[in-house]
Amino acid sequence: FLANWFGTTTVTREWIDSKHKEIDEEPVGNEAHVGVTPLTDMQQADLIVTKHWMRMLVWQMAMSKCLLSSNSSKESLSLSFPVRLSTQLRALITRFSRQAIEIHGSGIQQKLFELTDTIANVIITVPAATVQETAGRVDDFTFLIGFLFSLPSFDPVQRDILQNKLEQLQSLFPYSASEAGASPAASDVTYTSSGKPPHHDLPSPPSRVVWHEMAKKLSMAQPRDAPRSDLARLVEGV
């Protein structure tokens, strides 16, 4: 895996697709552990986030080799693949308790940051087919950063990076982030061990809130110019 990441061997579309399938087929829920001690909610949350993070790393490898396309028939080779993870991450945060996620500390926060930052880059650089689809993407993104910004130990540098992405989205899409009314996909994550979604105090994204008010609430940091991402340079060449 690392040999491919650093470019010492050839990465092909077939290799990328096979790695995505291997990750997808890896079980994370208690249904895959019959006869052994059931996984706790904390263990499941960690495994699911790590699974999404690994899929994102493989996707970035494909991007670095110019193997992605805006019209690929395979999800793993699509430029918009990361935004499809955002609904699954939102569902994870919604269905597991805050403690089940927070207890993993900086490790899981780093993975969630990298996923959320990549999702923002795709929203900014890869146009959606419709305005409603764009609003749904933005709605999921603001939900994710709302969760990360609410963590007391969230890294301030990473907070500034996401705040900058929020300001860029504000400029590009100056309408309500909740216009599409996007909702989590229950089939994408595992329920808690009790079979019911847990109760926790994370508020839903505010409905019909204009961008500049959202930005003020999420961070007091001043917006700043961000370096152009690899994804932006890639899209310009498509």
Structural overview:
Keywords: Nucleus. Residues 184-207 are annotated as: Disordered. This protein is mainly alpha-helical and 238 residues long. The protein is built from ten helices and no strands. Helix 2 runs antiparallel to helix 3 (41-64), helix 4 (81-95) packs across helix 6 (106-125) and helix 4 (81-95) packs across helix 7 (131-150). The two termini are 27 Å apart.
Quick take:
The protein is mainly alpha-helical and 238 residues long. The chain has 10 helices and no strands.
What's the layout of helices and strands?
Blueprint: H1 2-5, H2 13-25, H3 41-64, H4 81-95, H5 98-102, H6 106-125, H7 131-150, H8 156-172, H9 211-218, H10 230-236
Keywords: Nucleus
Region (Disordered): 184-207
Strand content is under 5%
Overall mean pLDDT stands at 74
Distance between the termini: 27 Å
Q: Outline the low-pLDDT stretches.
A: 176-212, 218-238
User: Which class of secondary structure composition applies to the elements?
Assistant: mainly alpha
Order of helices and strands: HHHHHHHHHH
How would you describe the shape?
globular
Quaternary structure = single chain
Overall strand count: 0
Biggest sheet details? none
How much helix is in the residues?
A: 55-70%
Count helical runs.
10
Q: Round the Cα radius of gyration to an integer and report it.
A: 18 Å
Region (Disordered): 184-207
Keywords: Nucleus
